[in-house]
Amino acid sequence: MTGEEIFADTIARDQRVEPRDWMPDGYRQTLIRQIAQHAHSEIIGMQPEGEWITRAPSLRRKAILLAKVQDEAGHGLYLYSAAETLGADRGDLTQRLIEGRQKYSSIFNYPTLSFADVGVIGWLVDGAAICNQVPLCRSSFGPYARAMIRICKEESFHQRQGYELLMTMMGGTPEQRDMVQDAVDRWWWPSLMMFGPPDADSPNSARSMAWKIKRHSNDELRQRFVDMSVPQAEALGVTLPDPELRWNAEREHYDFGTPDWSELQRVITGDGPLNRQRIARRRQADSDGAWVREAAAAYAEKQRSAGNGSGR
Ligand code: BYC
């Protein structure tokens, strides 16, 4: 069989494509685009919650938040490593991010105004991420699928810590309950936008699904997220800010309103509330860390030449 036939057969039999296997260039480029965007999202996603580490209300909350934000850095590293198996260069991907040539999730361009936002990010943003990412554990590209298994385990812990934080606040003072409702009002619609544009306007979905990189369309996953979130909101005692939200017995799903798609377009093309600040911070971190990368590369080089010198 030719490489092309082996690839088609691997996809048809639901097996994994591995880095050394032949793959169509479009498949490789789609994966690099999606995995890099995903990795950038994890790294930029450290900023909104990271801003609250020094202002966490207790030592326990600070320790939990530190661990969570550190996990996001780890997710970024697994994903950049998966992209490297496709021939991408990590430094080049970072450059593309800070020059605005590659995207990261729209959700991280909104401000975190109170500590309730930390809980709502855990509940809704990590919840949306889980909905989107659990099917990616069965993605056709081996290194991506394997990275997602580990990431999903950690995301599920993140979601629980968010929900537990919100439960605690909802059992507190009226002001605390108002903070939670205000955070839900601000994050609900942007969370729905995390799944991408509606299927009719999603240029990449059909191709990605045929290659089994994506297993479900953007709208299918958005519906799954709404269905999952409504009972959780009821248990928490908050109102989701959508007057059109109601159970549809015929469809056996919740009907819901239409997100403002023009807002998603603005945010993913660099004009959201905090895009400039997020990228400026990332650019600063990249230049602050340059000496560490240089020192690590010089050390690796020295080890290599010492190894060569001793005949190993
Ligand atoms: N934000 O054809 P479409 C996390 C772009 S991090 C920005 O539907 P596709 C977490 C899309 O890239 C969560 N851009 O695309 C971290 C494409 O533009 P390009 C991140 C978006 O790829 C810290 C164009 O719009 N998760 O979990 O088939 C703390 C057309 O879209 C967005 C992932 O990245 C958006 N919302 O589907 C807490 C998951 N939506 O690239 C949590 C992996 C669309 O052609 N990624 N675009 O210039 C995916 O599943 C898919 O890439 C998407 C989009 C569903 C996002």
UniProtKB/TrEMBL annotation:
GO terms for molecular function: phenylacetyl-CoA 1,2-epoxidase activity. SUPFAM superfamilies: Ferritin-like (SSF47240). GO terms for cellular component: cytosol. It comes from the Bacteria. One of its GO terms (biological process) is phenylacetate catabolic process. PANTHER family: 1,2-PHENYLACETYL-COA EPOXIDASE, SUBUNIT A, PHENYLACETIC ACID DEGRADATION PROTEIN PAA. This is Ring-1,2-phenylacetyl-CoA epoxidase subunit PaaA. It comes from Actinoplanes regularis. The lineage of its organism: Bacteria, Bacillati, Actinomycetota, Actinomycetes, Micromonosporales.
